[in-house]
Design goal:
The structure is a single chain. With 333 residues, the chain is an alpha+beta fold. 35% of the residues lie in helices and 24% in strands. Strands 2, 5, 10, 11, 12, 13, 14 and 15 form an 8-stranded antiparallel β-sheet that branches. Helix 1 runs parallel beside helix 2, helix 1 runs antiparallel to helix 3 and helix 2 crosses helix 3. The structure holds (3R)-3-hydroxy-3-methyl-5-(phosphonooxy)pentanoic acid. (3R)-3-hydroxy-3-methyl-5-(phosphonooxy)pentanoic acid (PMV) binds next to helix 2 and helix 4.
Length: 333
Amino acid sequence: MPTGPSATAVAHPNIAFIKYWGNQDDALRLPANDSLSMTLGGLQTTTSVTLAPDDQSDEATLNGNRLTGPALERISRHLDLIRRRAGRRERAVVISANDFPTGSGVASSASGFAALTVAACAAYGLDLPAAELSRLARRGSGSACRSLFGGFVVWPATGDDATSHGQPLAAADHWPLVDWVVVVDRSAKHVGSTAGHQLATSSSLQPSRVQTCPHRLAVATQAILARDFAQLAEVAELDSDLMHAVMMTSSPPILYWQPASIRVMHQVRGLRRAGTPVFYTLDAGANPHCLCPAESAEDVGRALESVPGVVGLLRAEVGGPARILSTVVDQAG
Ligand code: PMV
């Protein structure tokens, strides 16, 4: 067992209402367009990082499984960034676990890289403000930079490494929304988001999606600040549909939706026409996220459960920021 300094952090995933798709710079993960998300409380990743001064390489375990190959390399590269910044060389042992099921349609890379960044910086003795932690988290997975913060979070496309990080828009208690994650497909997605971002420019629709994004961001920001559900519903569904239109028309094309995803989308539109406040948004996968005010959550949940092809529902609320759970400075002494 390693005996070096150790830190444990938790972070929540997030769901974007204005989606990040495509990079200006793939290596730095500088996004092509602004994005805006809600941090998902009730779901979390817990990660501990322990320095292992005697080891020659990093080690990582996710949900009890030892990582190897590209998954381990991605974590090691992320630790390299943090080590370089801290002026340290020790390897580390990373132990991470999600309390939500893999394949549920909740992106674990956002909470995963947010928790890893916070725990690793603490273990390597780097005391950084949240914006700097967010910048570092971005390098592991773009959307992770938003999971540093709680509530509603904007990530502006500044095109510049130094200023590209999440910015809190409104705190978690600003607006009690509920996210029903509707599981229609538990299998792993066939194209991951890192590869997907690189295909975005091959769609002729991407330039117009990017160009019109500032307007949608302004509308969504205004809707959140004013707690205007109808306005948020309209702009968030439009933004999700635009991103999927880009995915479907890239080369090669990516089609994440399954028949049951579309049935859920129709159910949501039907509920809204009948006066129930709810909207859908889908990330790079088949499982729709359905957002509603907390007071209609039970009705909406029952209506979603009854859609043919739905195999599970996960409930999330507005969550808080990534945070340190514990640190151990020197286990040897
Ligand atoms: O952070 P990544 O590389 O996993 O990309 C996330 C992309 C979407 O989830 C589809 C959209 C978003 O803004 O979260």
